[in-house]
Specification:
Rossmann fold, 24% strand, 7 strands, 188 residues, 6 helices, alpha/beta
């Protein structure tokens, strides 16, 4: 079991269950000691997964990226906490652009990695990808989890590419997982 997979198991996330581990490792393993800022949209908690803790993915990223500050946004106040070292959270509707920008501006950072693990709907996901791409550092990575091909007509990757602002990212690809949903990865 890889180090990242062991963290997914330790904190009870579904990222390993969904088959995302090799894709995250391929995209981030060589840069993990250089990553300084990570943002995850959708903190979540109270899952029926062994070892699950509120903010499980935030704890994973904190341990996996030992030199990074980890940021999380969720619209549910039950998942907001700020009592853990190097983890910062805020309650916000990520699809309200004004509210989202206020939170990010308050933090005053750009991110090496952004993970969208919120609504799992291609429309809001593509909106958020375009809105957050300016907050991604050059050569940063943007992950759209649980991209649902059955919610769009045609290819899921084409769906995102057609809605992507021309300057948002320089590359975008989809990763097939054991589940019906896919992981979409963008590079700035």
């Amino acid at each position: 079991m890889s180090y990242l997979e062991s963290l997914f198991t330790k904190y009870g996330t579904d990222k390993g269950i969904w088959g995302y581990t090799p894709y995250y490792e391929e995209a981030m393993e060589k840069r993990r000691l250089r990553v300084k800022k990570v943002l995850e949209i959708g903190i979540c908690g109270y899952r029926d997964i062994p070892n699950n803790v509120v903010g499980a993915s935030l704890f994973v990223w904190r341990d996996y990226f030992p030199n990074a500050e980890i940021y999380g946004i969720d619209n549910d106040g039950r998942f907001i906490f700020n009592d853990q070292e190097r983890i910062h959270t805020a309650q916000c509707d990520a699809y309200d652009q004004v509210a989202l920008f206020k939170v990010i501006q308050k933090w005053g950072v750009k991110f090496d990695m952004i993970v969208d693990d919120a609504v799992h709907d291609p429309g809001p996901q593509s909106f958020l990808l375009n809105v957050l791409s300016p907050w991604l550092v050059d050569d940063g990575r943007y992950f759209v989890e649980e991209a649902c091909p059955y919610k769009v007509e045609g290819d899921i990757l084409d769906y995102y590419k057609q809605r992507l602002h021309p300057r948002a990212l320089r590359g975008l690809h989809a990763c097939v997982t054991p589940k019906p949903e896919e992981l979409v990865i963008g590079v700035k």
